[in-house]
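Worked example 2:
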Amino acid sequence: MALLVQKTDDSAGIKLPIDKQRISIGRNSENDISLEDELVSKEHAVIEVMAAPDQSGQIEFVLQDLDSTNRTYVNDHPVTLHKLRHGDVIRIGINLFKFVDEAREDTKETAQLYKTWIPGVFYTGKKKKQAKKKTTKKKR
């Protein structure tokens, strides 16, 4: 299964599972993911789950913009139709979502997301482990 992790101000990401063949996103309350944002069209975009044409038993997730006024962005590029890959960042209006393919990554790493000063860019907050410096004394 896959999911979208929505970034909200000063809190952990909200996990939205992609558990249907078609997930609708928009401002209208009848959408599967309803966003209260004036920059979002009533019917803004959909994510569809499809069988991969070249691999038996594999599925792929395709994001389609529904001719929205303010467009749909993946990794800061406007898209009309885009095959989602693990780690893609989707922007709809002012809303940011990270696409997580659970088959490819442990979702614990995406539980806490942080914004950067660069629009549309965020990070998980995973700290790099610093290697301990080994010092050796020279014998005289």
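The chain has no helices and 13 strands. The mean pLDDT is 81.
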